[in-house]
Design a protein that fits this description.
alpha/beta; 5-stranded mixed sheet; 7 helices; 10 strands
Amino acid sequence: MILTVDIGNTTVAVAGYEGERQAFVGRLASDAIWDGAAWKAGLTELLPQGAGEPEGAALSSVVPALTGPVAQALTELTGRPALVVGHNASTGLDLGGYDPSSLGADRIVDCVAALSLCTGPVAVFDMGTATTLSVADGTGVFRGGMILPGVALGLEALSARTARLPAVRLAPPEGLLATDTQGCMRHGALYGAAGAVEGIIRRLERELGKVTVVLTGGNSALVYPLLEIPARWEPELTFLGLLRIWQRSEEEKNGRTALSGPSI
């Protein structure tokens, strides 16, 4: 089994793959103050009974303080060094003119996965704590993107910075217009996110032509149904990208010629 681990600002998401089959998905809190041994124990508890022994792991992280301890835990759990994805990793994605030192590993991974599923150009909206847009063209070159406040983060800011607006939990909207304050906040956040996606894509297609839109991340399930443009919802996108990068690494270690571009 290959473990794929994505460290985000809110959760450490873990998926195990036996070949191309996803064997399990689990999550741990990103605010856990653990050392490598404690992370190893936490990861071990996520493994389902009867699952194959972990034989390798690929890791992406946007929380530097957690990268080392989790990578150590994965190395001890699998018996071989964890593959930590960064701008120096062999991913098949050409970063073009983007400053690699400031590019989140999750955005690289998302583009690798999207280009393995779709013909480029692709525009990936990863809707987590923040909403990131990552764009790669049909030749596998990363063209850049955007970072927006996440859907839930915007709601939290409204309630924290205003005297009368309450805390609101996200839920699917009923219709377009809401009839109470909490509903108005909820609808505004979700339809606002959908409108942002649609507006950005209209502008992007003026530059790149037809673009395949891919949504992923924890809040994407609520935004995707509201879109009035064609799009794909791929909730397991980051896990898939990590698996593809792991497979590429193994091909290179075994002396096989890696395919050019990210479609590995």
